Amino acid sequence: MLTKTPEQTFFVIDFDSTFTKVEALDVLGEISLVGRPDRDDALNQIKTITDRGMAGELSFTESLELRLKLLRAHRDQLPALIETLSGKISDSFQRNKEFLVENADHIYIVSNGFREFIVPVVASLGIKADHVLANTFVYDEAGNIVDFDRTNPLSANGGKPQVIRSLQLDGEVYVIGDGYTDYEIRESGAAARFYAFTENVLRPRVVEKADFTAPSLDEFLYHNNLSRSQSYPKSRIKVLLLENVHPVAVQLFEQEGFNVEIRKGALDEDELIEAIRDVSILGIRSKTNVTARVLEHANKLMTVGAFCIGTNQIDLTACTERGVAVFNAPYSNTRSVVELAIGEIIMLIRGIVPKSNSMHRGDWDKSAKNSYEVRGKKLGLVGYGNIGTQLSVVAEALGMEVYFYDIVDKLALGNTRKCKTLDELLAVSDIISLHTDGRKENKNLIGEREFGLMKQGVIFLNLSRGHIVDIPALVNAIKQGKVIGTGVDVFPQEPKTNNEEFMSELRDLPNVILTPHIGGSTEEAQANIGNFVPAKLLEYINNGSTYGSVNFPELQLPLLKNSHRLLHIHANVPGILARMNNIFAKYHINIHGQYLKTNEQIGYVITDVAKEYADEVVQELKGIDNTIKFRLLY
Ligand SMILES: NC(=O)C1=CN([C@@H]2O[C@H](COP(=O)(O)OP(=O)(O)OC[C@H]3O[C@@H](n4cnc5c(N)ncnc54)[C@H](O)[C@@H]3O)[C@@H](O)[C@H]2O)C=CC1
Ligand SMILES: O=C(O)C(=O)COP(=O)(O)O
To answer: Does residue 388's CB lie within 6 angstroms of at least one atom of ligand 1?
Structure first.
């Protein structure tokens, strides 16, 4: 909290790497040195000098002299610099334009950079030109930047405290910056507090000295209870991403200012219980089980993203009961699985794996025995969902006759034929491929009896879920020659990380392709998922939308404008909406919009209200019986 009133408080903000994400002179170098043979070398030198100056290892005047010499910049290059810098204003400053505009009289930019580019860049967020205290360039007659105004205290060490003192501000000064010179203002006594700003760079030596660390401007505003764009700073919201999700996902969360932790492998139940305590957003793939026991320890958890298709590893009922919305990527890796299945079918029906293995041993075994085309063969698909249907289209293009069996009555695409029973499909197919979802009831769907029904010499694939096949029965069928080619990508027990040994009775059997659950592991699929799932999670966190959720009532909400959004998740019992609306009526709340949707377990009510309302409203809404979770967005 501020120690004085906002009217008696002044905010001094650094420019380079604080107001903007970058160091302006580095960017100027990228512009001014274009086409010079020594460009890269000069740019590296400039960066090193900047860092050494920041770290207090070089006198500031010295570092400025050295950099200007290397830059060889010209006045005409400044517009391009200003344009670039305007596009690189720190995210949290952009988000909080309203605060900056409203408090312009109390905000100063104090920088060792140059007014020529700082003034136009900061003006876009309402900062006044006469509140920018910075250096100025000196040009030669041809417009080359050759020096700087050496009489300006900001061109020398200790300049910042000096210029702030000379302002004779009547109140308390809070400094926000990333560099040591910003801390020096506080050290000299010219400021009451120094916040180390770490959104763009974290300098340990500066953080160490700071009164507080501000990972974003939101955090600074929250800390001082000032008006801001985020009700709760995102830097306080922890995102835990497991199982090596694509870096683009990490980047998307970091860009939004969240506190992101990543881990390469999956976690077992106890490890996850330990890791999840303060996590609000959890990202997993197929190997991490989110059990009811885990959820008991996940008090802050708002949402889970399955960065894959399957959600059988998540206790969806328990998530719903606790008001945790779950999302997945239902289509992003479908094509990758289909391509692998087609590739394996061809490899298996030609017996390529044993042939390749014997070639590696030096054996040349040219023969057509037990080697077939796929054209005209009968492919039987168990499960005709997104993958099954797409596989049927590609297989038909290869001339295969496709049959399918699904527990749900599905439209047969192309010339595919629907089987009435699983048994019928098993009996007719030359190649059988499993593509059902991983619901519990599908455990051992294919066992001894089912293998018994298959044709002699069948090719069998499972790229869906491990527990769907009874492994000892499959091993038996392979050993007896019933199944002559097998492709398995998923297993009842899979290693948690790449460092664990894969144990299975399927090892070392003939014409068996084993793959480490990589059906969906292509660069394309992972990048697709890495974009898709965070978009869903962010829509839910930022806006409350649940479109695409696998366990929540689906609501696609309008963007929030000039309102506060109250999100109420409750057990689906009668009368809750009426109780909420009674509270709104009692406090004369002006409702801008209201949305309700329920499923069997829960109701989700979103109410957009005018910004001014009594604090008691929130308390009363939270206090309604059967409330599971309440959130406020603005
Ligand atoms: N190996 C890998 O890396 C990957 C595996 N998968 C897995 O592939 C499977 C299929 O994925 P999608 O096609 O996207 O799922 P989907 O949900 O679109 O389709 C599954 C279909 O199986 C049907 N089904 C469920 N139980 C059945 C049963 N006992 N008999 C017949 N049909 C049944 C459903 O009605 C549904 O039509 C899932 O288990 C998924 O987790 C998905 C992506 C990658
Ligand atoms: O998408 C699925 O369901 C998969 O099985 C892929 O899982 P993964 O992301 O590779 O752990």
So the answer is: yes
